[in-house]
Task: structure prediction
Amino acid sequence: IRDSVASRGLGDVYKRQGYKGVKLNNSTKHPFTAAPYISGCAYYLGRFATAEAAALAIARLKQTIDRMCL
Result:
């Protein structure tokens, strides 16, 4: 099955997949919540205006955890 709109590249595919730990709420100002589950621990990082900003917060948390565990 093909999309009705021509793809602009692989970025389109990745954007549709979503981000692990990012949930969409029905809030108008900050609809995305970053709440990942990492190494058996649940974290709440807050609400964000974009899914990308929420995913970046999760990526930064993972980097911090990796540095602490060295």
